[in-house]
Amino acid sequence: MMASRRMSAASRSIVEGLAARRKQGIDSLRTIPRNRRICTTDVNGTGRVAGKPSGRKGKGSRKASPSTGIGNCDGLSRTKQTQPGRDAKVGAAAVPSPPSGTLGSAALASALSFRIGLGSVAAAPTSSIWAPLAQLSRSIDTGTFTLAAVDLGTNSFHLVVVRVYPDTNRLEVLDEAKELVQLGSGMVDGVITAEAQLRAVQAFTRICKIAENHGALSNVRAVATSALREAVNQHDVVAKLEAATGVPVEVIAGTEEARLVYLGVLQAIPLGNNRSVTIDIGGGSTEFILGSPGGKIKFATSLKLGHIPLSEMLLDKEGNLQSGKVEDTRRFIRLQLIQSGLLECITSGNYDVAVGSSGTIEAVADLIATRRDTWAKQKSKEEASQSTSSSGGKGEGEKKSKRKQKGVQKLQSTNWSTGTLQESSSFTSEELDKVVEELLRAEGRDQRKSLGCSEKRIDVIVGGAVLLQQIFDCLVMQSMSASPYALREGIVVDFLARILPGFEPSLDVRRSSVINMARRFSPADTEKRFTSALHTARLLRMVYDGMHAACESHPSSIGCKALGHIQQRYWELMEAAAVLHNVGKFINHDGHHKHGLYLVRNSELLLGYSTLEVEIIALLVRYHRKRTPTPSSSAIKVLPGDLPETICVMLALLRVCVGLERCNNQTVEKISVQMDGDTCVLVCSPKKDRIGQPMDISLNLWTARQELEYLDKALGFRTSILDHSEATMSV
Asked: Does the global pTM surpass 0.90?
């Protein structure tokens, strides 16, 4: 993703800043080894680096990496980024009153705060976007509508078009687009070049055309970030973009960008009650958000550290690493992180989960996932070599090592982490160090491409990876998960919060995405199918809870030991499969279990689940009917650890509950579990009709009983299913 390689103002300021620091006597930082403890917040006992320079005066210079911050952290630098004549659209001007037909002031304030604890940092929309908002708010009552969000970033422009279902708060992605623009590339003295402006206008025009094709042109919210925020010619560029498309462009502050990023991440990563730190590395700035349980922002800040100027400093015009620039760049990044006060706000003890978002971190995560296979092979060869050396030649040890290596390769080809449910887009600090070392060791673009780098990020990934590594070091981070959602998705959610009174996105991302997928493949005229699937999940919960409760009195039972393998995380997957087991009927009733497997694997509608978790759900949907698999079945045996046995237990329980809802009319209302040793009885109570008589559940019971042989084999129980009346007579 590189265009002109001229040194930008941002890059030149890095060099000037380093020169100034040498004059100020901070050159001693050269002697600090790169490790996990270099970024202490008290370098000289005061919490600041000694001799903080003012920077060189003169044309093209600026203070190093000023930041903006919001929240409760007193240590955070709060230098205003607003510059005269630049941030009029996001400055202190009063929020315009909405026109007639839109939300009132009280409702608007509530919607803008979006219930995430930001208070005064709610979005401040400009008057230019009230017209489409007013039109859209008046059309909501007519049913579904489409809207589009555009992220006009420093490196790329991103579009997402969604259809909104106001009655259920469900969103359906209709289209996505990404255009490489590199708006911030080649900036000199804060001026966006004519070439970059032309690329921006052409890309924005194409993006708006896509939105128009979906009927969303009047409902586009376009947000510009770091490049335009810092540009001296901001107004000229914005005017050209708006004149070419008729779509208003908002230039937002860094803290507002951080808020919207966090809003987007919450829709993809199940943060739950965890304390989190979210990091979004962009082309011209990096946002940091410290989140508390419940999706509230404790504080947020934006630093002028972007992968474009850092990559321009590290690489020459041909994309080769410049001699001596790596340590200079690392030192510069560390200084900015220390001087901003960020390290006083984010410590290893005040967050539980680290999340990264946007293209740079996603690219790093993808590269690490690609390299894992190579690293595993290298490790296996080293182990085999050591085994051969210790045994004095080839022997049984080498054969076992080769068999192990083959098994590891087969498992890794599915992109799963051995024995865990780790998200494939997660990575550790050690893996990050490995990939940064390989990127810096690579000679030129061709070698970086051979590592697995995307063609479009073959240069900018270098600066982004080095920046991320320094963030890991300074914040003492051990691991990170990459979010597929970021700013543009946050724009969508914030847009809806403005126009839909009472709109509240779910913080339980996993469950809401399962419900949305089930609804997506259950047309309005087949609502009964969706309701039946939910009831199947309720029956499954009754059976699961009942068996666990009964096992407290029979802990040594063979069946209870097998049931004990289904931990809470597996229960969630089993519940998801119960809700989704009918989605394949959207394609065709015949073979709908196989169609369901395909949809779950490939729809990308399930959010917050790892690759392995999605595969487990897909297999449960696939085998909820017809052929019964065993732990040695080809599709099951490749699962890591004890999952082959566990998934068969999960399938057996699911198949029984699907049978109990055979008639799709929720006639089995309640299930109780009775256990005596290795004998288990499921007692089913029917729902009563309008005159109070028990409804007929004989077909449901017959269907479920056909699955008992498989259940008994999986659990080791002798299981029977009785109608409540039959159980009463037997007593």
From this structure: no
Taking Cα atoms as reference points, which of 494, 487, 507, 505 lies closest to residue 123? 494
Element holding 146 (H helix, E strand): strand 145-152
Do 270 and 608 form a contact (C-beta atoms < 8 A)? yes
Please, how many CA atoms are within 13 Å of residue 587, restricted to the half-sphere of its CB? 14
Helix 527-551 to helix 509-520 angle (10° resolution) is 140
β partners of residue 300: 70, 289
pLDDT at 555: 74
Structure token pair of residue 634? 């080809």
For 626, counting Cβ atoms within 10 Å of its Cβ (0-12 exposed, 13-18 middle, 19+ buried), the class is: exposed
The whole-angstrom separation of Cα 618 and Cα 269 is: 20
The single-letter DSSP state of residue 250 is E
The Cα-based distances of 36 to 40, 343, 463 in angstroms read 10, 13, 19
CA distance 267 to 505: 8
Q: Cα 204 vs. chain centroid, distance in angstroms?
A: 25
| Pairing status of strand 156-165 against strand 170-180 | antiparallel
Angle formed at CA 16 by CA 319 and CA 340, multiple of 5 degrees: 95
pLDDT band with cut points at 50, 70 and 90 for residue 121:
very low
Q: Which residue has the tokens 């995560």?
A: 365
Length of the chain: 731
Q: What is the pLDDT of residue 295?
A: 83
Q: Which 3 state secondary structure label does DSSP give 215?
A: coil
Local structure of residue 60 (DSSP, 8 states): T
Per the structure block, which two tokens stand in for 467? 């920046």
Q: Where are the beta strands (DSSP E) in 293-422?
A: 296-303, 353-357
Classify residue 127 by its DSSP letter: G
Report d(CA 325, CA 162) in Å as an integer: 44
DSSP 456: G
